[in-house]
Amino acid sequence: MKERERLGHILVLFARHGLKGLAARLGLGAARDEPLDNPGPEAVVALLRDLGPVAVKFGQILAMRSDLLEPERVTAFSKLQDRVGLPYGADAASRIRFAI
To answer: Could you report the per-residue pLDDT of 19-41, keeping only the tens digit for each?
Structure first.
């Protein structure tokens, strides 16, 4: 995917989650005059999930920063840490033994 296409995809995700104002403040897109509403923490978490693993990792790091964020945001970001599954499901140990 080319950079311009990826940026377009990212802007669509911001808009889908009602975060166009946040995208404008971050310098993304042309709508610089979009109002910055205080986005709910769940909308930001949903955006991070949709953006992919690097964004999820960023959210996981933010979940550990209760010195920077309000408790409701820390709680929301911590949900990104709770939903990590095993890469191969229940038979992970047998797959690892087989690979060795």
So the answer is: 888 888 788 866 666 666 677 89
**pTM metric for this prediction:** 0.70
Three-state DSSP at 91 gives helix
The two structure tokens encoding residue 86: 């095993």
Residue range of the domain that includes 51: 41-100
- The reply to whether 27 and 45 lie within a common domain is no
Please give the backbone phi and psi of residue 34, each rounded to the nearest 5 degrees, phi first.
Answer: -65, 130
Both 34 and 50 in a single domain? no
CA distance from start to end of the chain: 35
Separate counts of helices (H) and strands (E) for the chain: 6, 0
User: How is residue 23 written in tokens?
Assistant: 């995208």
